[in-house]
Amino acid sequence: MSRKPEATTAATKGLPTAEHTSKGTGGDQLYGPAEAALKVFAAQANKNSLHPLDWERFYRFIVSAHQFRKGWNHSDIRQLLEGYGFTSDKAKDLAEAYWHGRCSLHLSKHLARGTRYADWVRKGRAPLN
């Protein structure tokens, strides 16, 4: 008997979803600062046309994901954003912006140490497809 492959979802990959909240003294909280920044962005964003303040919140999310070394790639972010109600096209565009932001932050940190972008990509940080 052959097993049918399971669909990969945010939950099966261990990514936060809207259901991954815990009730604490501060109300609903996701796992950590990066997840919280994503939730704030998604909750407050004008999903039709992002306002400059929406972009600021999105960039704060990117920096937080970088600071806390989240291993999220383009596909992960797209899936998360779609789960928060963004259209597939808008989620794709934002996921690409996320990836470019993470690459820029990585390169700014590692270029001085001689780490090449190609080496970083080979270690599992797949570029946009």
Commentary on this structure:
Helices cover 52% and strands 5% of the residues. It is mainly alpha-helical. The chain has a domain at 33-122. The chain has a two-stranded antiparallel sheet.
Give me the strand/helix succession: EEHHHHH
Shape category:
elongated
Please work out how many helical segments DSSP would assign.
Answer: 5
Give, in spatial order, the strands making up the sheet with the most strands: 1-2
- Please estimate the helix content: 40-55%
Please mark out the parts with pLDDT under 50 across 5 or more consecutive residues, or reply none: 1-7, 9-14, 17-30
Largest sheet: 2 strands, antiparallel
In whole angstroms, how far apart are the ends? 33 Å
Please state the structural category: mainly alpha
What is the count of β-strands? 2
User: Mean of the pLDDT scores?
Assistant: 77
Strand content: under 5%
Report Rg: 16 Å
